[in-house]
Design goal:
The chain is built from 16 helices and twelve strands. The longest helix has 33 residues. The strands form four sheets. A six-stranded mixed β-sheet has the order 1-5-6-4-3-2, sandwiched between helices. Strands 7-10 form a two-stranded antiparallel sheet. It is elongated, with a radius of gyration of 26 Å.
Length: 403
């Protein structure tokens, strides 16, 4: 009697686990379809992506890697979802991006990100390692980039000793190079569509890594513009794209111009606590150039460490990137060439920082030689004293900056 009851109990338990496992398999199949698995398969079949090297992780693997998505594993939160730090069975440290509950549009964005990143192979672009489709919300697994975002480094209240003028130029040219690669060196051009300092990561060696392709779009080779819903981040968003919904590579150029202005000034792109004139960094930067007040808004360290030529030219480059008309903006390839040129600039040994008038006048004479960007490089008027304390005739830096 007792043995029979025990046998029945074991049988019921086994049936329960079989039934539960079958339900779990069905649920995972449902999630796979819900998270765009069929769409991904279709695009792979159509040769839109090469995912042979992309690992498909199980839900169990990623739960274990994140300690069941513990709060202390959260690296960051954004409009698209939450990013967790994970440690895989082979001891690799990864970043796991968990999307929010998705609708039909977001599914396409997720699959789009997978397709894009499986095509991308660049040292300054965050590498996609794999994905998981069998969970309630889709997951992407990236290489882990350990040193946070450029946004945090620029706006941190702590002193960032590494953020020298040379390193700002290096970060800028690495980010620009990655975008140039996406625009012109991939099999199908890629527009990032959400370029901002929060999407520029830094690794242990402070090497730049462009991240977050959730809003990206692939551009057919025979098509220069894509009509689409406007997406991006306020403060970085291209005004022409916002008004026309016509997306081009030049939209990324505008956003990168805002990042450059952010690097130069240490100011956030949009801040409601600033005066109305200074609230939007892009507008404020352009106005400062027009009014010969560039050196008033640059970070003191930038003015101390950059040469006159570098600061004038980088200001002019930002101005071109922030042009309201896309056709007047440079390409990202041109931006790379220009910034690389600035990095090779060295200050004349006979120029003093404290405004030796004789030497400064010699520099003015030298500066009259032709230049690629002659009209826009020198934002200063040819006569008179600049309100910031910087004069053309004497090249005197503001005293408060030199301290």
């Amino acid at each position: 009697m007792g043995f029979g009851f025990l046998a029945i109990l074991v049988g019921i338990t086994l049936l329960y686990f079989v039934f539960k496992k079958r339900n779990l398999v069905k649920l995972r199949e449902k999630f796979f379809q819900q998270n765009g698995g069929l769409l991904l398969k279709q695009r792979i079949t159509n040769n839109e992506g090469n995912v042979d090297s992309t690992k498909v992780f199980t839900a169990l693997e990623l739960e274990k890697a994140t300690n069941n998505y513990a709060e202390d594993r959260i690296l960051g939160r954004g409009g698209y979802g939450i990013v967790y730090k994970g440690i895989l069975n082979d001891h690799r440290v990864v970043a796991i991006k968990k999307s929010r509950v998705v609708d039909e549009t977001q599914i396409e964005l997720f699959i789009n990100e997978v397709i894009i990143l499986t095509k991308v192979n660049h040292r300054n672009v965050v590498k996609l390692l794999g994905c998981c489709l069998e969970t309630e919300v889709p997951l992407l697994v990236y290489e882990y980039v350990s040193n946070g975002t450029l946004f945090n480094h620029i706006h941190s209240k702590r002193t960032m000793t590494w953020l020298s003028w040379e390193n700002r130029l290096r970060v800028a040219v690495e980010a620009a190079g990655a975008l140039s690669y996406l625009h012109s060196a991939t099999s199908t051009p890629v527009i990032h569509r959400d370029v901002k300092s929060a999407n520029i990561l830094l690794d242990d060696n402070y090497t730049t890594k462009i991240a977050d392709f959730g809003a990206s779009r692939l551009v057919p080779l025979d098509q220069t513009q894509v009509t689409t819903l406007v997406q991006g981040t306020l403060g970085y968003l291209d005004p022409e794209y916002f008004q026309t919904s016509q997306l081009t590579e030049k939209s990324d150029v505008y956003s990168f111009g805002v990042v450059l202005a952010e690097l130069l000034t240490g100011k956030k792109p949009l801040c409601m606590e600033r005066t109305e004139e200074e609230r939007n960094l892009a507008t404020h930067f352009i106005m400062s150039l027009k009014e010969d007040r560039l050196f008033q808004i640059l970070e003191p360290r930038v003015v101390r460490e950059g040469t006159l030529e570098q600061l004038q030219q980088i200001g002019a480059l930002v101005k071109r990137c922030l042009s309201l008309t896309a056709d007047e903006r440079p390409t990202m390839k041109e931006v790379v060439i220009h910034i690389e040129g600035l990095r090779k600039f060295t200050q004349h040994p006979w120029v003093t920082r404290h405004g030796d008038e004789e030497n400064a006048n010699l520099l003015n004479a030298e500066g009259q030689e032709t230049d690629l960007y002659e009209e826009s490089i020198n934002p200063y008027s040819s006569t008179g004293e600049i309100s910031s304390g910087f004069t053309n005739s004497g090249l005197v830096y503001p005293s408060n900056i030199l301290r």
